[in-house]
Amino acid sequence: MMDSENKYGLWHRIARIALGVFLIFAGTSHVTFARVEFSAQVPKWLPMDTDLVVILSGLVEIGLGLLLVSGWRKSMAGWVVAAFFVAVFPGNISQFLTHTDAFGLNSDLSRGIRLLFQPVLVIWALWSTGAWVAWRNAAHR
């Protein structure tokens, strides 16, 4: 029988690996079958080629997903993944403001709900890697 600390750690591990697999899948879709849909999220004001942004962000997602799955430097990985989710948030805002349809998000309501999900991803990254707890523990030393 697992004690509560190991059981809690198991849930963190499952959540971290699940997020990593999600990122690997999303990144792979960026560079393969969903490039057009992801292009809809690149803000028009960004002074870069849209397809390049989609490809590069996909490669970053694959790398971050592999980092999460590996478990290497979990706390640091959690902060980097959380920062990535914050960095791509303007794309989600742009999709909402420009009323751009992609991924079945064809109404302001559905695009607005998606905006609300982004903080969940940030929290997921920080919780599943123990990043927030590690930071709090370091701050209290």
Description of the molecule:
The structure is a single chain. With 141 residues, this protein is an all-alpha fold. The protein is built from six helices and no strands. It is 77% helix and 0% strand. The mean pLDDT is 91.
Compose a concise summary of this entry.
With 141 residues, the chain is mainly α.
Q: Can you count the beta strands?
A: 0
Strand residue content: under 5%
**From the helix content, strand content and strand pairing, which structural class follows?**
mainly alpha
The coarse silhouette is globular
The first-to-last residue Cα distance is 33 Å
Count of helices? 6
Percent in helix: over 70%
| Mean pLDDT level | 91
Low-confidence parts lasting 5 or more residues at pLDDT below 50? none
Helix and strand element order? HHHHHH
Task: Please give the radius of gyration in angstroms.
Answer: 17 Å
Largest sheet: none
